[in-house]
Amino acid sequence: MAVKEFDKPELKEFSTIPKLVEEATSHLAPFKSNEEFQQSLGYPGELVENWQDKALDKMGELLKKYRSLRVYMDSCIQCGACTDKCHYYLGTKDPHNMPVGRQNLMRGVYRKHFTLPGKYFPKLVGAVDLTREVLDDWYSYYHQCSQCRRCAVFCPIGIDTAEISMAAREIMDSVGVGQKYCNEIIGKVHKIGNNLGLPEPALADTLEGLEEDVLDDIGIDVKFPLDQKDSEVLLVTPSADFFAEPHVDGLIGYAKVFHQAGISWTLSSHASEAANFGMFIGSYDNMKKLALRIREAAIKLNVKRIVFGECGHAWRVAYSFLNTLAGPFDFLDPRYPVPQHICEITYDLMNKNVLTFDKSANDDKIITFHDSCNVARASNMGDVIGGQFTIPRDIIKATTNKFFDMEEDTIKEKTYCCGGGGGLLTDDLIELRMKGAQPRMEALKRVVEDHGVTHMAAICAICKSQFSKAFQYYGFELDQIISLHQLVGNALIMNKKEL
Amino acid sequence: MSFVTIFYGISFYVATLILFIGLAYRVYEYATIPAPLKIPTPPAPKTKKGVAVRLIREVVFFESLFAATKWTWLFGWLFHFALLLAAFRHLRYFTDPVWFWVSWEVVQAAGHYAGYVMVFGLLGLLGRRIFVDRVRYISNPSDYLMLLLIILIALSGLAMKWVHTDIYAVKQFFIGLMYFQWAELPSDFVLLLHLTLVLVLMIIFPYSKLLHAPGLFFSPTRNQTDTARDSRHIADWAKKMETRE
After folding, report:
1. Do A385 and B46 touch (CB under 8 A)?
2. Cα B31 vs. chain centroid, distance in angstroms?
């Protein structure tokens, strides 16, 4: 199905808050999951009979399982602080894309069916029945949220729309209305081990090819080991790192770091995916199953540490949830946190002078850094508050001579999502993705004009893929988005020692 | 005993029960529903003490709101702070003998002027609801009515400065309610209007968005420590899903 033509947002010199346009993106919704993909995750294949009762039952269940959902349904003051904070609202002008507008799609149903005023005075408090139209709105607008949590930072109560859109997706899945992109991918990981459905022989082949490429390039036999038992480190990285650009340059960077530091490492064909799309659909169950593959791989390969590659939502699940979902990890080396981020590894080695850099190798670039939403707002690095902001920047500053941050209210905890996170990185949502990228593109344009920035580094597979598209759309070059570890790999001074 | 006294006496008992039992029940619910995953937003504290500091900053300064929008922060903060000062002033009607600091001139005067500040803040918030298209879009009738209710409470309270009310008798009435030795309530119109609106506020509190007050303390994005890697955080219902040894 061809994507309908849409108006291209203009990048303005100063960001402004647009006047709202009702129903501006009500036509946008991702492809629905078919019966096969639904059932492989244990969900009904199509909209079930008496779906309203089932959906309300599910909602009641989630309200008792997640304090966040319950408190956030009750506590919104409708103050409007969040209304101009979502990149999708700024890009689409649709009021349902204001965080509170999005929440109210569920809050209306909550008030009607779970509160007294909503039951007796629905008009007064905006309570609505869960009709087919409401369900359609849910499907449309809960798939126009990338769960980036920018709104949650600004909310005086800390209401996190991601919690609500995750619950909405879980409720919809439970009555047979799922999203194709996410559910197909989760099915592949359950069956094969990664989002791409890349089986072990293909993976082994790809890694061998990479070894040859690096050998040709720098004359050093950097290994990309797969399923190597008794390695020190199990590296879990997004499968896009295996072949997509610019992701793969990041993977080469990690391999060079391990090689140079003399740390034995391995990838696993069983857990060949860092991303955990179970989070996107709000399914604790699926998220746990996916996370357990990593535990199983770590046990089978008898490793001492687990390290994650550059991937935003993956790092959220890893840092914040892995211990909960698949712990305790008492069989790993207790001297290291579980899991670690590749940036933490590089940063530590850099500070111990195990890694040394020739910054001039990156002199052809002037760098800015995009804080990926789920790293910035849902995890941390190192042992200090704010490590997720300082560690990547310190690595960039150690490996390049020219670095400029974008405007303060577009970075760190106030960073804008790339526009493709949360299970929306699919071509059937291209209009939403391009419009959602607008705030980040405006901030980038300003540093390009003010400081001559040539490249934006990122530490998330989704960001990298999304920006490859958005850059071309907004008149930048596709190769201006790079992996942070590409800078590391370029600048790292390698000596020819064997492992 | 006049009808007015009996009616308001019973109403205040009922409203007090609804407010306190309702709130206690909500707090019980919030406290017993698990937060199965670690979801604090940055900058997330590592310790419980850090969480306490964070919550105090949110409650006292509305820190996140300040970062979000200065106008809403200004009006909202002025209203809430003024409400607190007005509440302090009112303590003299419920304490006998009056707590020493409540009778301080500065507390009494501040409580009085706070009434005007409250109205100013609330009108500002109402203005935002009416004039900012995004806030107008999300506003339900109840959102306007809630503001009007509190504005009228403040105005009727301020009006008693000018319209004579036997404040001593009012105090006897409330102290009487508290010690179950009822006294007559003066039946002045402005006073009864003020008390009626307060009754409404007390009754709707546990059933409305006013639950943002306890809600903030139970908001996982704000009250959790950032210690996911250090110790295992798991809900009881999630423990039952553990299949391995």
Report:
1. yes
2. 19
Average pLDDT score over residue span A371-387:
96
The closest of A299, A322, A359 to A487, measured between CA atoms, is A359
In angstroms, the CA A232 to CA A394 distance is 25
Compute how many other C-beta atoms are within 10 angstroms of the C-beta atom of residue B61.
Answer: 13
Residue A112 to residues A48, A84, A96, A107, B137: CA-CA distances in angstroms?
22, 27, 19, 8, 19
Enter the ipTM: 0.96
The domain locations on chain A are: 44-177, 187-491
Q: What is the mean pLDDT of chain A?
A: 95
User: Which chain B residues are closer than 8 Å to A81 by Cβ?
Assistant: 64-65, 68-69, 72
Residue whose C-alpha is closest to residue A467's, from A434, A427, A424? A434
**Cα A457 to Cα A67, A147, A370, A433, B182, distances in angstroms:** 36, 21, 6, 19, 73
Alpha helices in A317-369 (DSSP H): 322-326, 342-351
- Please report, for chain B, the start and end positions of each structural domain, with discontinuous segments joined by +: 1-62+175-226, 69-159
Instruction: Work out the minimum CA distance from A113 to partner chain B, whole angstroms.
Output: 13
Helices A132-141 and A99-114 cross at an angle (nearest 10°) of 150
Using an 8 Å Cβ cutoff, are A492 and A355 in contact? yes
| Number of C-beta neighbours around residue B189 at 10 A | 11
Strands of B55-176, DSSP E: none
**What was the pLDDT predicted at A8?**
83
The answer for A20, left when phi > 0, alpha when psi is -120 to 50, beta otherwise, is beta
Q: Among B212, B230, B237, pick the best mutation site for testing chain A contact (most A Cβ within 10 A).
A: B212
| Tens digit of pLDDT at every position of chain B (245 positions) | 899 999 999 999 999 999 999 999 999 999 999 999 999 999 999 999 999 999 999 999 999 999 999 999 999 999 999 999 999 999 999 998 999 999 999 999 999 999 999 999 999 999 999 999 999 999 999 999 999 999 999 999 999 988 889 999 999 999 999 999 999 999 999 999 999 999 999 999 999 999 999 999 999 999 999 999 999 999 999 999 887 54
Q: Name the β-bridge partners of A340.
A: A307
Residue A498 confidence (pLDDT): 46
A17, A78, A120: which to substitute to probe chain B, counting the most B Cβ within 10 Å?
A78
Q: Which residues of A touch B231 (CB under 8 A)?
A: 323
Structure tokens at A468: 């490859």
Right CATH for A44-177 from 3.30.870, 3.30.450, 1.10.3470, 1.10.1060: 1.10.1060
Q: Are A457 and A395 in contact (CB under 8 A)?
A: no
